[in-house]
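DM from R.C. (forwarded with permission)

"hey, sorry to bug you on a friday — could you get me a structure for this? deadline for the figure draft is monday and I only need the backbone to look sensible"
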Amino acid sequence: MRRDTREDQPVGAGRLPALRPRLSLVHTTAEPEFTSSWFCGSCGAGPKAGAPVTPVNRVCGSCGQGLLLEARSDGAPRPDEAFLVVDSRLAVQAVSRGAEKLLAIREQDATDRPVGNLLLAAEPEAPSEKHFPSVLAHAIAGGEGVITACVRPRDTFGVRFPARISACGPPRAALIVLRGGFLQRSRLRLVRDRAME
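My reply, with the result:
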């Protein structure tokens, strides 16, 4: 049987029209890609403008004490924000200067201790997927996005901090950025002072 080279269909009576693939626009609901930011685990400052971050060059150029970590831009702390870094064992590995002031602790006293010794979920009746350890484990496991929660110091009632929780690293860890006002800090200091009397 002879073929028509134009449509690659058999020639003859009852010939079917050629079916050709068509291009069409596919709508997706994919989330936009976020950029990442580097920040110091101690002071929160980023690397100097244009300075590449390499495994050899990860010590903060501003304070000289912290290790540079990477997080999504919408989760990374600003230099004036208080934050903690928690590893896969849910142990605190870094406490920013702002968090030291906000929580009235010293980094050396908090490092390698369970985060539950410092912070708890402020909503004790939260659904199981919103429990503080579950949220941290999700972030450490590579959960995408930034989760907002409300936390409180373990030994203090009536003080709450809105928090952003996201992944950071390397090595992979959870980043807890605390936002607290002057009233909360003053109240926390007052409670701690009374406890020491």
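R.C.: lifesaver. Helices lie at 97-103, 107-110, 132-140, 182-196.
me: no worries. Residues 181-186 have pLDDT under 50 and may be disordered.
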